[in-house]
Amino acid sequence: MSPSFYTRIGLAGALVVVLAFAGIAPAQKPPKTKLSNPSSMNLPDYLVPVTDPDIGATIVRITTPGPLGAGLACQRTYCTHRYSSAQAWNADQTLLLIANGCNGLCFLDGQTYVPLFRRQREDECEWHPRDPTRMICVIGRKISLWTPRTNAEEIMLMANGYHGLQFGPGKGNPSQDGRRVAVRGTRADGVVVAFAFDLVSRQKFPDIEVGKLPGRDGVCEISALGNYIRCSRWVDGKDEAFIFTVSGDLVQSWTENHRPSHGDMAVDADGREVYVGISKSDPDIYQVIKRRLDDGVVTALAPRGEASHASTRAIQWPGWVILSYGGDPAEIAQLPTFAPFAREVIALRIDGSGEFRRIAYTRNVPHDYWSETHGSPSPDGSQVIWSSNWGVAGGPVFDFVTRLDASDRTSALAR
């Protein structure tokens, strides 16, 4: 890797006014780093590794329209991993899941990306973060552990008196040790509830009657250490969030719109649980922030910009978030106070130092939801998967993997 692979966002001082009443840490000053435009680069051939001419990392295009082999096939419009905060690789990175636009759940070799096998399931399934053989699945009244290679399934809970259980929906993850999940569903009396479930002890925690909160249902997800459940609600056009203990006690009400959202759970350096994402409300609108689950204190991590999604799925590489940036480089170049990133994926420290590293220039132009980048790292941070239409709005959306050198990641942590 070239020495420029790592960069530190320069902080030009700090605000001296502390908004303690709002739990707001001082915002960062704009970085000294300049917007960097990528070199011209042809679309990489399918499964042919190439070197990024600007970053020096290896890029592999891992999907292509049509048959892939082993019974897998991609549709023409898009063929991608599920989402930024969904773990794409299993725990030991031997398998990689392509879930959008493939003919089923399509499993690739996690290192060579060669197609291996596919499965058909209606459940919402996410990789177990510790057991590389299994996924955690939720549907109807059932929570189960499923082994994709053999198709074997172990039912962990059959929730009599409930129906319509969902893992999130769409943004569900287990706790980092894989013990606990949060699900949302409807109780027999018609009330929409969420509850935590321990997969090891098979303990169901008390119902949280989220359907009695203001607004309409959003997402419910467990925290990184399994102590809290964050449930979002749409209230008067705002995406609000409510933080509960797994025992059902309300500890926080985040009534600002999306403050933050499109993010992921993490553990801070002091061991406290946080949610990292993008704010869409003042005083830190369109900044990347982290927010503590126990007291709601907010810390700004990156200046206002075009960050769209955040992922902390590199649970074995703590202290970093993977950010996907959209935007038009020409427009961002005219906004010197904005974060100097456009159409790229970066890794950013969550300690507030502003230290970051560029991962990939996506060359992705806006078109629709399926063309969004949704960068997501492997558990150890050695690989990052991201999507791009490679400059053709309405053209096929491919998945790419950027491979990161292990020694570079080690030295990055020490900087």
List keywords for this structure.
single chain; 415 residues; mainly beta; five-stranded antiparallel sheet; 2 helices; globular
For the biggest β-sheet, the strand order reads 1-28-27-26-25
Major sheet size, sense and barrel closure:
5 strands, antiparallel
Arithmetic mean pLDDT: 90
| Global structural class | mainly beta
Give the termini separation: 16 Å
Q: Which segments are poorly predicted (pLDDT under 50) over 5 or more consecutive residues?
A: 1-30, 408-415
Strand portion, in percent? 35-45%
Gyration radius over CA: 21 Å
Overall, the morphology is: globular
Task: Give the number of helices.
Answer: 2
The total of beta strands comes to 31
Portion of residues within helices: under 10%
